[in-house]
Amino acid sequence: MPQLSVAVLARDNEAEIADCLESLAWADERIVILDTRSSDRTAAIAEALGARVVEHRFEDFARQREFGLSLPQGEWLFYVDSDERGTPALGEEIRRLIQDRSRVGWWVPRRNYIWGHEIRHGGWCPDYQLRLLKLGHAHYDLAREVHEIVRLDGEEGFLQQPLIHHNYRTFGQFFAKQRQYVDYEASILRKQGVRPKPWTFVLQPLREFWRRYVALGGFRDGFWGFLLCSLVAYYYGFCVTLELARLWHRR
Fold first, then answer.
1. Residue 143: what pLDDT?
2. Quick one: which of 157, 5, 27 has its CA closest to 91?
3. Which of 25, 37, 212, 227 is deepest in the core (most CB within 10 A)?
4. What is the C-alpha separation between 10 and 2, in angstroms, rounded?
């Protein structure tokens, strides 16, 4: 039976690391990759639950995950975020499918809960993430600092059982994370040489809202779907364009 490790990127996650690790008890090895800037009891809680804690200086998400590929003792690594929860059914499916020698990576669907409400449309479900990786056959694109991209040298597959993702429990958490993503996205576009046009400030938010709310059916989630699609369109349409313009102006 192939050995399975799970890894969690963490920084100041003492409020949720225990629930996360306990939901992954079916793994052979649990690893917490701790950002060296962390200052709370995340490490102590994880070690008390039998996890191996490895501190590593954070540069960006892609490099942090790439570092994690060197840590497991097992043949497979399953990445989970601290606000995600595994289930026994997911563990059973993973155990069965990693015996398939023809695949080197598996996409896992996520069920996203935002502000306490499950969001099932607008691109938020099934929200596949490439997280189950066969070591030696997967690497992260280091040019993509956030919303990381995995490069595989073999075939991939899709899991059926989902990860439970408690994404953005509060509005404050949502706003803070979006501001962080705006900076990353604008920086990436600037490195690619993308220049915003005057009409982009209007058309890009409209395109993003239409894509999520209409084309991807965000309207089916009622008021919460409308609010989420509107805010995402504002941040990823208008705010990214504004920050990109600022970067070019500073240059």
1. 81
2. 27
3. 212
4. 26
The 10s digit of each residue's pLDDT in 70-117 is 999 889 999 999 999 999 999 999 999 999 889 999 999 999 999 999
Phi then psi dihedrals of residue 172, to 5 deg: -60, -40
CA distance 52 to 60: 21
**Other C-beta atoms within 10 Å of 157: how many?**
13
Residue with tokens 């043949």, as numbered in its chain: 75
Find the DSSP H helices in the chain. Answer: 17-22, 42-48, 61-68, 88-97, 171-191, 200-209, 222-233, 240-250
pLDDT at 161 over 90: yes
Tokens of 82: 């601290």
Block residue for tokens 């965000």: 218
Per-residue pLDDT for 191 more than 90? no
Contact between 112 and 125 under an 8 Å Cβ cutoff? The reply is: yes
**Residue 56 near residue 45 (C-beta atoms within 8 A):** no
Q: Is the peptide bond before 126 cis (omega within 30 degrees of 0)?
A: yes
> Position 2: which residue type?
P
- Taking a C-beta distance cutoff of 8 angstroms, is the pair 241, 194 a contact? no
Q: How far apart are CA 17 and CA 168, in angstroms?
A: 16
pLDDT band with cut points at 50, 70 and 90 for residue 251: low
Tell me how far apart the alpha carbons of residues 236 and 75 are, in angstroms, rounded to a whole number.
37
* Complete domains list, the chain, with CATH: 4-167 (3.90.550.10), 171-250 (no CATH)
Query: What pLDDT is attached to residue 148?
Result: 84
Q: pTM surpassing 0.85?
A: yes
